[in-house]
Design brief:
CATH topology of the largest domain: Multidrug efflux transporter AcrB transmembrane fold
Distance between the termini: 24 Å
CATH superfamily of the largest domain: Multidrug efflux transporter AcrB transmembrane domain
CATH class of the largest domain: Mainly Alpha
Strand content: 5-15%
Helix content: 55-70%
Largest sheet: 5 strands, antiparallel
CATH architecture of the largest domain: Up-down Bundle
Shape: elongated
């Protein structure tokens, strides 16, 4: 691996003009594709195999004109104090509004009259008109949305309170200027880390090129692959973070090679051969985590994971090829003036090597190794305390009740809840399939029995009359719960209805399915709970094997996996505290607390695992490199921190900045994931990798690098630390102060069991 990447880095350096031209051409092609592609995106949410999805699909088949996936709007009217919606003047205003809704847009499929459909509350203070559209919310034209709002103005002009709920007014996610701030912070961190504008600008430039290619490709394929509107946003979030980090590690290693006196082409080859190997394996762990989301079997989540994984692959390829090419153009300007002067003084013999002087990473590693038990206990207990709120995690799908109280959607939600009861905003839809009915029982008789028995359940407020399709073999009923949609009582009601439906089906042969937003929420939560263990087993298992190959150790990958679990559970605890409990909600722009988005925890687990393994690979690889070249276990930890702590810390701050930039998004899922990933990276990089890792390695000593003999023989030797490359180039076996170690902790041979001769 290291030898191949070494040759690739030198080739890219020599042919830098061609390499740069290829990437610019790819960016241009992707940009043209995005500009000429259809702007429509899909936000359909399906969960194959669930009862709610089966009912939804059945509705599409049996009620083809119902536009089940079309946008909807509820125009809610509320009378002034002391008046009723049945007063002649108010009734006339509502009828004018309904007329305007019907004639306002050609995309309108149907508008219900509140007085015909009996959509007036018992106290006659509130009424609503249901508007159904022929297209989805994201396909509604601005003219249709303007017509909806103009129609509502008729009621407001008459003195009524008019608010609009539903998904007809949903907008594309907006992220504002916070991402720009995140990138600006990244630029400042890079300048501080490298002390040179050229070196700081390279990671930003290449990351933006990679994200540009990835997001443009996603945009170009959105309509073809049925991608959601949040797919490109999440791909941008992850692509920016890893793109900057991967470039950062290679540029940092290149500067280190120059400091050792290498020629520029040789330094580029060695940087790609060593740091590039770590980039490849770190990228693989991220890709495994993202692609592994497919096991959840939620198409939207699978596509998001695959799109983000594709962006990560592009980031890896750019780091391995475009970075050495641009280093060729940059010359020695990637070094700061101070570094260039120091190198000149070093060549003149007037100063000591900078690497020989202890830096902050060295001092921190020595501190941890002097007090490993104290540091370990403090870190674990601290993360455990932060993780406590995760025990109260409640998951759900967003609805108008999760909108900020200032929005018209939330105001409409509250008016309906006050006027018609808390369960009115989360109706359950029952679909009765009478095709399998036996003994002459048709859909009508079965639907009547369903309405009677379901209506008798304790938490049911009302059951609407059945609506039948043209053949009369399928019925559709709505059940209004007494409890609010996100309550435990409503979830229990869904299970009770399904139990009752199973008994009716055994008696009649007719199937009754439960669907609707609330039922879909229950099914999604169950699906995610069922998939969590297989997902973790797959992702953690594959990554464990990959890290075992990289580090040729059993305990190091195990420690990495356990550290990840600590950081991700603590991050989930922080998410619950902020978004569900409302702690520090004003600071993070959380206007409305509520359940955590159902898909968010498992998506965060996947992404955080990949990123956590990034830091493990980048930091511990330098320790492994020092150990196999002769250093004692404790000294190897110090060496790893001396070379890697500053760069890993900078990379973590950059990732935190990029992810935190998405907290300003108007999309609740993007906001939650931005916060969750930012806080998880903080915990993982600065608590787990910087504190727990050196403490554990210090306590384990040589045992940390133990590998059973039979595994030693069957595991491939990927040489991620470049030992074979050094032998091929005729270098000594490293910077250690003793004989090279065997992977099992004994001395006197290299990783392959061959004797090592120090030069």
């Amino acid at each position: 691996m290291a030898t191949f990447l070494y040759k690739l880095g030198r080739l890219a350096f020599r042919r830098r003009g061609v390499v740069a031209l290829i990437w610019v051409a790819l960016l241009a092609v992707a940009g043209v594709g995005a500009a000429t592609a259809s702007s429509s995106t899909s936000n359909s949410f399906s969960v194959p195999g669930t009862e709610a999805q089966q009912a939804f699909d059945l509705l599409d088949q049996r009620f083809p004109g119902a536009n089940a996936d079309g946008a909807t709007a509820r125009v809610v009217f509320h009378a002034p104090d002391g008046q009723k919606m049945t007063d002649p003047a108010n009734k006339a205003a509502v009828e004018r509004t309904v007329g305007a809704l019907k004639s306002g847009s050609g995309q309108v499929a149907q508008v219900s009259d509140p007085y015909v459909s009996k959509s007036v509350s018992k106290d006659a203070a509130t009424a609503y008109a249901q508007v159904s559209y022929k297209v989805t919310g994201f396909e509604l034209t601005d003219a249709s949305k303007d017509a909806l709002q103009d129609a509502a103005k008729n009621g407001r002009d008459a003195g009524l309170t008019v608010e609009i709920g539903g998904n007809a007014l949903q907008a594309m996610p907006e992220t504002g200027a916070t991402e720009v701030i995140g990138i600006a912070v990244s630029a400042v961190v890079l300048v501080i880390t490298f002390g040179a504008l050229i070196a700081a600008g390279l990671p930003l430039l290449t990351a933006l090129i990679g994200v540009g290619i990835g997001v443009s490709t996603i945009t170009a394929l959105s309509s073809v692959l049925d991608l959601s509107s949040t797919t490109s946003t999440l791909a941008m979030m992850i692509g920016l973070a890893v793109g900057i980090d991967y470039a950062l590690f290679i540029v940092s290693r290149y500067r280190a090679e120059l400091a050792e006196g290498r020629e520029r082409e040789e330094a580029a080859g060695r940087a790609v051969g060593t740091a590039g190997s770590a980039v490849v394996f770190a990228g693989l762990t991220v890709v495994i985590a993202l692609v592994g989301l497919a096991v959840v079997n939620i198409p939207m989540l699978t596509k998001m994971g695959l799109a983000a994984a594709g962006t990560v692959v592009i980031a890896v390829l750019i780091a391995l090829t475009l970075i050495p090419a641009l280093l060729g153009f940059a010359g020695r300007r990637v070094l700061s003036r101070k570094d260039r002067k120091a190198r000149a003084a070093q060549q003149d013999g007037t100063t000591a090597r900078a690497a020989d002087r202890p830096n902050m990473g060295t001092r921190w590693a020595r501190f941890v190794l002097r007090r490993p038990v104290t540091v370990l206990l403090a870190s674990v207990i601290g993360l455990g305390v932060v993780a406590v709120p995760a025990a109260s995690l409640e998951m759900g799908l967003p609805d108008d009740g999760s909108q900020p109280t200032s929005t018209t959607q939330r105001k409409a939600y509250d008016l309906l809840s006050d006027g018609f009861g808390p369960g009115f905003n989360g109706p359950l839809m029952l679909v009765v399939d009478g095709k399998g009915a036996q003994d002459g029982q048709g859909a009508k008789s079965v639907a009547a029995r369903v309405a009677k028995e379901i209506g008798a359940l304790d938490d049911v407020a009302a059951v609407t009359p059945a609506t039948f399709n043209k053949p009369g073999d399928t019925a559709m009923l709505s059940v209004i719960p007494k409890s609010q949609p996100s309550s435990v009582e409503t979830e229990d009601l869904v299970h009770s209805i399904r139990d009752k439906a199973d008994r009716i089906a055994s008696d009649t042969g007719a199937t009754t399915l439960v669907t609707g937003t609330t039922a879909m929420n229950v099914d999604v939560s169950q699906t995610l709970n069922d998939a969590l263990l297989p997902y973790l087993a797959l992702v953690v298992g594959l990554a464990f094997l990959l890290l075992m190959v990289v580090f040729r150790s059993v305990l190091v990958p195990l420690k990495a996996a356990l550290g990840f679990l600590l950081s991700v559970v603590a991050a989930l605890g922080a998410v619950v505290a902020v978004f569900q409990w409302g702690w520090l909600g004003d600071l993070f722009g959380v206007e409305q607390t509520g359940p955590i988005m159902s898909m968010m925890p498992i998506f965060m687990v996947g992404v955080v695992f990949g990123l956590a393994m990034d830091y493990e690979v980048f930091l511990v690889t330098r320790m492994r490199e020092a150990y196999v070249h002769g250093e004692r276990p404790g000294q190897a930890v110090i060496t790893g921190f001396r070379h890697g702590a500053r760069v890993v810390s900078a990379a973590a701050v950059i990732m935190i900045s990029v992810f935190a930039g998405f907290i300003g998004s108007s999309e609740s899922m993007v906001k939650m994931i931005g916060f969750g990933l930012a806080i998880a990276v903080f915990f993982d990089a600065f608590v787990v990798r910087m504190a727990i890792v050196p403490a554990v390695l210090g306590l384990l000593g040589k045992a940390a690098w133990w590998l059973p003999g039979w595994l030693q023989k069957i595991l491939p030797d990927v040489d991620v630390e470049g030992e074979g490359l050094r032998r091929q180039l005729g270098d000594g076996d490293g910077s250690g102060d003793g004989e090279a170690h065997r992977p099992d902790g004994t001395d006197g041979a290299d990783r392959s069991g061959r004797a090592t001769v120090r030069v």
